[in-house]
Amino acid sequence: MYAVIKTGGKQYRVEVGDKLKVEKLKANVGETIELKALMVRDDEGNVHVDKGTVIAEVKGHGLGKKLIVFKYRPKKNYRRWKGHRQPFTEIEIKEIQL
């Protein structure tokens, strides 16, 4: 059984036991959150659209790897460095309900 969920503007295909990093959620570590399933495929192969929920547990928060943004104009003595680390929330899928 697997489901497709949407969070943070992205869609993820998840199964029970999966751990994934999603855009930062407003939830504390150890909390369980409920995500709406866009699609669920059960063990018999039946597909259910816009039905079901996914129960996940928040495992932690963190920052992704550093990305460098560098602007440069040749022959103009213009250089700008900027770094960015995207915040994320790590979740573990506990249950998929129909």
Automatic annotation (TrEMBL):
One of its GO terms (molecular function) is structural constituent of ribosome. InterPro entries: bL21-like, bL21-like_sf, Ribosomal_bL21, Ribosomal_bL21_CS. Pfam families: Ribosomal_L21p. GO terms for biological process: translation. It comes from the Bacteria. GO terms for cellular component: cytoplasm; ribonucleoprotein complex; ribosome. Signal peptide: none annotated. Keywords: Ribonucleoprotein, Ribosomal protein, RNA-binding, rRNA-binding. This protein binds to 23S rRNA in the presence of protein L20. Belongs to the bacterial ribosomal protein bL21 family. HAMAP family: Ribosomal_bL21. Part of the 50S ribosomal subunit. Contacts protein L20. This is Large ribosomal subunit protein bL21. It comes from Aquifex aeolicus.
